[in-house]
Design goal:
The chain is an alpha+beta fold. The chain has helices at 2-21, 345-348, 457-485, 487-512, 515-534, 543-552, 557-575, 581-602; strands at 23-30, 37-38, 42-50, 65-82, 85-100, 104-108, 112-113, 116-117, 121-126, 162-168, 172-174, 179-187, 191-199, 206-210, 219-223, 226-240, 244-248, 252-265, 269-281, 286-291, 301-313, 319-320, 325-335, 353-355, 359-366, 371-383, 387-391, 394-400, 405-411, 414-419.
Length: 603
């Protein structure tokens, strides 16, 4: 019985010792460099939890203040060995960053962690005092004397410690000339965790190509006497589509950063923690003065603005009638290379050669400063007659902004010898057989009443049919010449057919998941269709010109607005992060529907 009594006393003593070892302690400290807490100031309540496994909950209400930040900020442990007995103690520290907002005397606590209650802390909040900058505090959390609100303060389009600048390579340019547009981030914060665009840029009046050549690391730059970490976060090559003053409105970006907050620890002195902060930033707007191309524009102008060369190659060495051969023209250079067009070879090649629509292969790169690369045009042609023929030189006329002149690059011409092939009735002369001296036998005896064949109508019919055919052919030829003398009317008739061909290619790209090529073909089908149908030169294609022309043609206003929105949506998809198969299918269906609607309106 006595032994049980001593055992009970020993257990009670150990429990008291363990209870005394476990503790939750609260302490209050003003902001760094402060001796008293004033309204608008930051101050800190520290929670130290010793030898407990529980975590304190974030308080929803602190008298006279608002909780700005709450997180664990420290950990310590100790070991001791007495007479071979090892003991361990672990302490965790949580810090509340608060903003004082009401004068008065307040108390906070107790709080309970793991069943153990803390002490109660008392603090007083006084009247506002002039803000003092903590010694040595050169971090991005300084307020630049703009007040004490805990919300982000903005200067112009961004915060004083984080903002964006938009720049263009030139403020004056020609129509379709490549212009570099960049967005640069400036920051003094400790870390940038996330940058995301919440709104698309407004490139009204421009064709846009997005460059992937952006900054992968931060660089340092001094701006207005202050050093910032900088990075290029967006780079576009833009091509103005019509003359006048065009405005570029930048994206709205959401940027998440770490802001340093300082507090005084009773043991370690001045310490700091990182506070997450989110800013919405928009770069400045820019205006570009766009000039029209010099007059007169050459009749065979390709629409290219930049610097280009063209060369040709003739893969085949032997040419036979009624067999298809090919000739390849390669356009290389930088500028609006995707929108360069070659002359119609059917108009410059000999009539004895039938030329077909080419297939093209693009190898175009949107680089750091320009769009450059090459496009191969593979033309198939078939000789209809045998003989020697000249494949003429092909000229590529483009405008060079560097020299401000129209320049010409010439692809080599070739002379080919076409041999006779099999199955040709137009160009081959059948060999005349040898004379057969044997007379044909008389089938029926001759009669004196025999009527000459020339008196029969069938005889003259053999003359009437060819003559009538020649007359019909002549009339048809004259009608064809008259119909094709007006090139604008020819372009209008061919507009729908060319657009359908591009949409067929876009459909193939959509099925293969080639997003960029799909969007390019959709845009070229829309712009090409409208340019041909409305007889608008490529250099003058713009939303305003198209809207005006369609209105004159009595196209309903709602159809015009739907068309402009479709073009805007397709151009937006070009710089969107991604596009699903369903979104590409929706764009394709809208394009088909819009062309059918416009075609009915034109009729």
């Amino acid at each position: 019985m006595l032994r049980s009594f001593f055992a009970l006393i020993l257990l009670t003593f150990l429990f008291v010792i363990d209870a005394e070892a476990q503790s939750v302690t609260l302490s209050v400290s003003p902001g760094r460099g402060k001796r008293e807490i004033s309204t608008g100031d930051l101050f800190y309540i520290t929670i130290q939890v010793k030898d407990l496994s529980g975590n304190p909950d974030k308080p929803n209400d602190v008298p006279g203040a608002r909780v700005i930040y709450f997180d664990r900020t420290g950990q310590s442990s100790s070991f001791s060995s007495v007479n071979g007995k090892v003991t361990q103690s672990v302490s965790y520290t949580w810090t509340m960053t608060l903003r004082a907002h009401t004068e008065g005397s307040y108390s906070f606590g107790p709080i309970t962690v793991g069943g153990v209650k803390s002490n109660v802390v008392n603090y007083a909040i006084g009247a506002p005092m002039p803000e003092q900058t903590p010694p040595g505090n050169n971090s991005g959390s300084q307020r630049n004397g703009r007040g004490t609100s805990d919300k982000p303060e903005y200067i112009g389009k961004g915060d004083g410690n984080l903002f964006m600048r938009a720049e263009v390579s030139q403020l004056s340019a020609y129509v379709n000339q490549a212009i570099l547009y960049t967005v640069k981030l400036y920051s003094t914060y400790d870390a940038i965790k996330f940058i995301g665009a919440t709104a698309s840029p407004k490139f009204d009046g421009f064709v846009v190509e997005e460059s992937k050549d952006i900054s992968t690391s931060l660089e340092y730059e001094t701006y207005n006497g202050k050093t910032y970490a900088t990075a290029i976060i967006a780079r576009y090559i833009i091509f103005p589509q019509h003359e006048g003053k065009l405005t570029v409105k930048g994206n709205t970006y959401t940027v998440s950063v770490d802001q340093r907050e300082y507090y005084r620890d009773p043991f370690y002195g001045h310490m700091s923690v990182s506070k997450p902060l989110q800013l919405n930033v928009t770069p400045n707007e820019l205006t570009v003065n766009v000039k029209s191309l010099p007059k007169p524009v050459p009749a065979d102008f390709s629409g290219g603005v930049g610097h280009f060369t063209i060369k040709s190659s003739l893969p085949a060495q032997k040419f036979v009638t009624n067999q298809v051969a090919s000739i390849v023209y390669t356009v290389e250079g930088s500028g609006n290379i995707k929108y360069v067009t070659l002359p119609d070879l059917q108009n410059i090649y000999p009539d004895e050669l039938e030329v077909y629509t080419p297939t093209s292969e693009s190898n175009v790169n949107v680089g750091r400063y320009d769009v450059s690369g090459s496009i191969k045009y593979d033309y198939s042609f078939m000789p209809l007659e045998w003989g020697t023929f000249r494949l003429p030189e092909v000229k590529l006329v483009y405008f060079n902004p560097a020299t401000e002149k129209y320049e010409t690059s010439v692809a080599q011409g070739y002379t080919i010898a076409v041999e006779r092939g099999t199955g040709s009735e137009k160009s081959q002369i059948k060999s005349v057989g040898a004379f057969n001296p044997e007379l044909l036998p008389v089938v029926s005896p001759l009669s004196f009443r025999h009527r000459p064949f020339v008196y029969d109508f069938l005889y003259w019919l053999f003359y009437i049919i060819p003559i009538g055919g020649i007359i019909v052919a002549y009339i048809s030829y004259k009608s064809y010449i008259a119909a094709n003398s007006d090139m604008l009317a020819v372009r209008s008739r061919k507009a729908n057919r060319m657009a359908r061909r591009r949409l067929k290619k876009a459909f193939a790209y959509m099925k293969s998941g080639n997003r960029d090529s799909f969007l390019d073909e959709i845009l070229m089908s829309l712009w090409g269709y409208l340019g041909d149908k409305l007889s608008i030169p490529t250099s003058e294609l713009s939303r305003d010109n198209i809207s005006g022309k369609l209105a004159v043609r009595d196209i309903p206003d709602e159809d015009i607005q739907s068309l402009i929105k479709l073009i805007d949506d397709v151009e937006f998809e070009k710089y969107a992060p991604s596009a699903s198969a369903s979104e590409m299918q929706e764009i394709y269906d809208r394009t088909i529907g819009m062309m059918n609607t416009l075609e009915e309106g034109f009729k």
